[in-house]
Amino acid sequence: MIIKGFCQLFHPLLIYIMKSQREQRNQKLHILNDHPTYTGKNAIYVVNHSCKHDFPISGEVIGNHTCVLAGKQKLYLSDYIAFLLNGVIWVDRESRESKKVAFQKMLSCMRKGLNMCVFPEATWNLTPSKPMLPMYWGVVDLAKQSGCPIIPLILEFRDNDCYAWFGEPIYCLPDDMKKDKFTKLEETMATIKWKIWELFPVEKRDTINLNEWNLKVKQRLLEYPILNYEYEKQFIRGMSK
Question: Which pTM was predicted?
Answer without folding.
Answer: 0.93
